[in-house]
Amino acid sequence: MSSPAPSEPVPPPAHHHTTRPLDAAVAALIVLLCLSWGFNQVAVKLTIHDIPPLLQGALRSVIATVLIVGWCAVRGIPLFERDGTLRAGLIVGVLFSAEFILIYQGLAFTTATRASVFLYLAPFFVVAGTRIFLPADRFRASQWVGLALSFAGMIVAFGVPTPALDPRQTLGDLMMVTAAGFWAATTLSIKASRLNAISPEKVMLYQLVVSIPLMALAAGLAGERIAHWPDRQALAWLGYQSVWVVAVTFVIWFAIIKKYSASRVSAFTFLTPLFGVAAGHFVMNDPLTPAFLAAVAFVAGGLVLVNRPK
Description:
Blueprint: H1 24-47, H2 53-75, H3 86-106, H4 112-119, H5 122-133, H6 141-158, H7 167-192, H8 200-221, H9 232-259, H10 262-267, H11 271-284, H12 290-307
Helix pairs in contact: 1-9, 1-11, 2-8, 2-9, 3-7, 3-8, 4-6, 4-7, 5-7, 6-12, 8-9
């Protein structure tokens, strides 16, 4: 992951896929990713009693790094060639780390419901950012309506956040909004830089390798520690996060981001918190309300508008 030699200039990535529409197979794959991330919310909750959240993040990055490096070695995917991506890779690594540090710490101050609403402002930030960094990916008016309709589904599911009475809750809300900004910045940085021209495995490794020391440092500053050996359930859910979510689904996500419209793909993430609610119902027996079904209809309708061809 070194910087390019002056004698080996690398052309900037092509953007002819910037507005490429999603076909049914890719859309179904993205839904599977969002389903996996919805269950990841449950995985974090079921692991947190044995492994604190920031340490979870650091450990899953370590495990996923080993797995992805092994995969690249078996598949012959180059990781250390001079391709001009070091600077951009370090930047997205810091953005990725900051996003998850803010999410984990923000949840200590605000509720999971408020966090879901504020974190999923990220698709709006992505669409707004494309006007500057990816002008060919600008949304039409009908697509903005679709995005707003999907976000309305979030409001139906989780409710309109009321003004925070506790300053700590306000801080948590702001941390979630900032995390959403970092999430969007990561997506835009990958799409608009040389990272868009390399393997998704290497893009993921940049983020993981940078996140390990940063999240470990944050865990130390927060006073997190593992008081006892985690039980089997906690280890199983940590394995789910590390192996399936990070090492597999995150790599697939970045491969899709590379080939398709960042704005259209990001809109699908509105499904993730809804899948999280469904996962809580099936795994932890949390109740489902009629508002949840209405929320699903709103989000689905919004996604149809966002991805409708001209």
